[in-house]
Amino acid sequence: MKAIPIAFTLELKHPFTIAGFSRTSTPLLLLKLTYENVDGYGEASMVPYMGENHDTAAQFLQKVNWDRFVFPFNFPELIAYLDSLSPANPAVKAAIEIALNDINGKLLQKPCYEIYGADPAKMPLTSYTVGIAEPELMKEKLADAKDFKVIKVKLGTDNDKEVIRTIRSVTSLPLYIDANQGWADRKTAIALIYWLHDQGAVFIEQPMNKLDMEGNAWLTGRSPIPIIADEAVQRLTDIDKIKGSYHGINVKLMKSGGMYEAHQMILKARSYDMKVLIGCMSETSIATLAGMALAPLCNWADLDGPYLTRNNPFATPELQNGRYVLADLPGLGLKGLPNDLFIP
Ligand code: MG
Description:
Blueprint: E1 2-18, E2 21-35, E3 38-45, H1 54-63, H2 75-85, H3 90-108, H4 112-115, E4 128-130, H5 135-143, E5 151-154, H6 160-168, E6 175-178, H7 186-198, E7 201-205, H8 213-222, E8 227-229, H9 238-242, E9 248-252, H10 253-256, H11 259-271, E10 275-279, H12 285-294, E11 300-301, E12 319-320, E13 323-324
Parallel strand pairs: 4-5, 5-6, 6-7, 7-8, 8-9, 9-10, 10-11
Antiparallel strand pairs: 1-2, 2-3, 12-13
The structure holds magnesium ion (MG).
């Protein structure tokens, strides 16, 4: 196995603000792996609050012995090997694992979604995320969202109702709400959740601090709409810790360390009768295609990465009536690869 990692900076269309945080770009690692003349592509999106960056990615890649990756790939064993190199670094692990999935599909001559048992006809709508901003900028952002049928709204500040009223002045689309741990008082939060339900909210992501299991569970016991864990759940083993405290989980490849474990998380959550949202970070088409391959197995999708960024180097996956279209191509189905990108 030969590896070419490229440090890349993904520029956002608009400054992205969530409760307690704002940024205009995201460091990425784009990875090309080549195995017996077959190329596979992976990506790490290293949003600052997760603790990874170009340096940590480079340090991790130096530890990897690429001779361990031999087809047919034994994903549980390879994931255990990557975890043995460092317990953390989920995004760079995802880059490697996604590239392996791409190669795996190409060697088997099957799309990744088929390998994971996902039916393209069951693709859910994907939402378009609007961060916290001044009303005029929010209206501008919503104008960019014309291809989408659901809006995801970041709340968790003092003016949550004002944000929703601004959105409602321009669109009546259903809303996915993400509080990003921003609500501190459970009684205020439940009153707000009822109000949001009346405003067309479909679910609430991570209302209270991830460590406040009791507060989030209290809301789950009373909310008229599903309460979804995001920050509170990273990997497969976390699901048992939060079971009963939330109605569902937000699975992200950059938290799970890639597609195989994300798939295991989806199956486990479903076996507990929990809902599943598949989410993303600021990503190019590579990680979006990897998420899309699993999206038909989930209740909801929030895979708008390429639509929120300025310099995605690849073709943007096709969206029809607010749903991504899975192409009948082996592996991830990445298109529009610039031939000068992966030059070591
Ligand atoms: Mg979230």
